[in-house]
Design goal:
The chain has about 625 residues and is α/β, with parallel strands linked by helices. It has 17 helices and 29 strands. The strands form 7 sheets. It has a 6-stranded mixed β-sheet with strand order 14-13-12-15-17-16, sandwiched between helices. A 6-stranded mixed β-sheet has the order 28-27-18-19-20-29, sandwiched between helices. A 5-stranded mixed β-sheet has the order 2-1-7-3-5. The structure holds FE2/S2 (inorganic) cluster (FES).
């Protein structure tokens, strides 16, 4: 059987395959947040002609069904089909991700007080040629040369021995050694003839569940040469880590998921290298930070036990890997350092975030939260650190929200509702003429807080039909029109289930804070600093997040929005041995609290299912606003 697309493309449809699977085989990827279970409603296509069996119509309105819409993941062709794939169903896997600036990073590195000592070093030796009087072997000569440079312990892997004699003689006994410090010894990872001291670059990578960010760093001075980013193309297998683990294990597709992230990194690297004319021999090392599942999938490790009680990963600390072992397209001998993880749901990205904030060295009590697809929290100071994952879900990244999208061009990132007229003003990511196509996390926080303040929703997040003309029946319940579309663009709405989803997510985050603080016998009043990381793009309105009850009501100056801290920590580790050691200590020192079995977390969570909270006295400022 064959599926024709209205664009003219024709693809084969193997017997028993769904439309989604057939499209995927042909390299056409649809958004499939639920991983093809038929529950997210993101993979809609329109059947123009032909016959197919649809096993689920969940998330489709009557009008849509009447117009031929089906869920691609649950629809199986019976004859050749002609289908139309709406723009909003297509998976967009490109776009810039906002990150830190070079100057800030170099300043940050200096502020840690750590000396610059990259993961790998290059040493140039000019050795005296052998004579009848000085007739020691080539290897001894090499060791002697290094000893005079203070490198007493040197490990030479056997793979360098066959070419050693030639390499040493090729440029008149001048050679460059690239070494890495492991277990109190220097180990050779590359030998080249001549002086190859510079240029040399390192790569810091953040493997997020949603996005991948690569920093190209000049190892001679710590300068950030360029940033490249893309959406993690594993998204095509599902939005969250659990769906991907299921795909990797139950469907035997670990290799596919591993290949997806490796090819994303390879593509980013090749773009960056081309732009800056960087020779492959100038790349020396990689540091990679990601959550525990992402790190497992990147390294090709079996993640299956991460999702089953008692949630055990294959490893929390990872032996050094080499590019050739992972199919990274650079010199195969380049080392790849993966950030240590804490537990199945608090990974290297969080350790990296702690390192970026330096909260583990501060006397004051701080909170660090990374709001991504899960919502991981660390609370502590220089003496102790407690972490937890609060299962906030990926709604702030657009998943599970009818018109939700990530913080990229076309996303509504800010919403204001006039107190008198209830007119809505929106702020869209992109150029002045960029048309809105969906709403991202910061837009959702803004919108729900504003709807609450204007009485469009009540404390439970229920839409009030008589308050605003923008509240309408959306087929599957009431919805609020954030933006009215036109002939070409659909309306952007927040439906009641979306608002419930957002309220559940904010309740989980706040409950995570309160549960950890309760456990250690402290309160929000003891917290001096709150660091927020996450994919909100450039902008997160702290006041609105407080109004919603997601963040505690503390003075505004105690909050700091940090953007992507995972790649920042990877940058620091790339350049400093001391900070690598600190990262390992942080991972070891962090106590992990399993919130999924905590009764007190459940109680806190239920109390948080109101806006801002059942305990309104915890939010005196919001209370005052409500009274007004
Ligand atoms: S409904 Fe089809 S992928 Fe989610």
């Amino acid at each position: 059987m064959e599926i024709s697309l209205t664009t003219g493309k024709k693809i084969p449809c193997p017997p028993g395959s769904s439309i989604l699977e057939s499209l995927k085989q042909a390299g056409i990827f649809l958004t499939s947040s639920c991983g093809g279970k038929g529950t997210c409603g993101k993979c809609k296509v329109i059947i123009k002609s032909g016959r197919a069996v649809s096993k689920s119509r969940l998330k489709l309105s009557h009008e849509e069904i009447g117009s031929g819409y089906v869920l691609a993941c649950r629809t199986y062709p019976e004859t050749d089909l002609l289908i139309d794939v709406p723009k909003e169903s297509m998976l967009v896997v490109e776009g810039k991700v906002v990150t830190g600036k070079s100057k800030d990073l170099q300043e940050l590195l200096r502020s840690t007080g750590a000396a610059m000592k990259p993961l790998t070093e290059r040493t140039v030796l000019h050795l005296p040629p052998p004579t009848l009087d000085d007739n020691i072997s080539d290897l001894e000569r090499l060791r002697r040369g290094l000893l005079s440079r203070g490198m007493a312990c040197l490990r030479v892997p056997f793979r360098f021995m066959p070419g050693l004699a030639k390499t040493m003689r090729k440029k008149d006994w001048e050679i460059t050694l690239c070494t890495i410090h492991t277990e109190d010894c220097e180990e050779i990872i590359r030998i080249a003839s001549g002086n190859r001291k510079s240029p040399r670059y390192g790569v810091a990578v953040d493997i997020g569940t949603t996005t991948i960010v690569v920093f190209l760093v000049d190892l001679t001075n710590g300068e950030l040469v360029d940033i490249a980013s893309t959406y993690n193309s594993q998204i095509r297998y599902g939005d969250d880590v659990i769906t991907r683990i299921v795909h990797a294990t139950e469907h035997n597709k670990l290799k596919e998921l591993n290949g997806a992230v490796i090819s994303d990194i390879n593509n980013l690297l090749s773009i960056i290298r081309k732009t800056h004319h960087i020779d492959i021999e100038s790349l020396d090392c990689f540091v990679v930070a990601g959550n525990t599942t992402m790190t497992h999938l990147f390294l090709g490790l079996d993640p299956s036990a991460i999702r089953e009680e008692p949630y055990i990963p294959t490893a929390n600390t990872f032996p050094l890997a080499f590019a050739g072992e992972l199919d990274i397209r650079v010199n195969p001998d380049i080392p790849i350092y993966a950030f240590p993880c804490v537990a199945s749901y608090v990974g290297g990205d969080i350790v990296s975030g702690v390192l970026a904030t330096q909260l583990h060295k501060k006397h004051e009590l701080s909170i660090f939260i990374d709001i991504g697809t899960n919502g991981e929290i660390v609370i502590g100071n220089s003496e102790w650190l407690v972490s937890a994952a609060c299962s906030a879900g990926p709604c702030f990244e657009g998943s599970g929200i009818k018109c939700g999208m990530r913080a990229t061009d076309g996303a509504v990132e800010g919403v204001k509702i006039d107190r008198e007229t209830l007119d809505v003003e929106i702020k869209v990511i992109g150029d002045a003429d960029t048309k809105p196509t969906g709403i991202c996390g910061s837009g959702m926080i803004d919108a729900v807080a504003e709807m609450f303040l204007t009485g469009i929703i009540d404390q439970k997040g229920k839409l009030q039909k008589d308050v605003s003309g923008r509240v309408r029946d959306g087929g599957d319940g009431l919805e609020f029109v954030v933006y009215s579309g036109d002939a070409e663009r659909a309306d952007i709405v927040l439906a009641e289930p979306d608002i419930e989803n957002i309220v559940r997510a904010k309740a989980a985050i706040y409950a995570g804070f309160s549960t950890i603080l309760n456990e250690v016998g402290l309160t929000f009043n003891d917290v001096q600093k709150v660091y927020i990381a996450g994919g909100f793009g450039k902008f997160l309105d702290i006041e609105k997040a407080i109004m919603l009850g997601m963040l505690p009501e503390l003075p505004k100056e105690r909050f700091e929005y940090m953007g992507n801290t995972s790649v920042t920590g990877a940058y620091l580790c790339l350049l400093s041995r001391k900070l690598r050691e600190e990262a390992e200590e942080v991972a070891k020192k962090m106590t992990y609290l399993e919130l999924s079995v905590s009764r007190s977390f459940m109680n806190e969570y239920v109390s948080g299912l109101f806006i801002p909270h059942t305990d309104i006295d915890a939010f005196p400022g919001v209370k005052k606003l409500m009274e007004r």
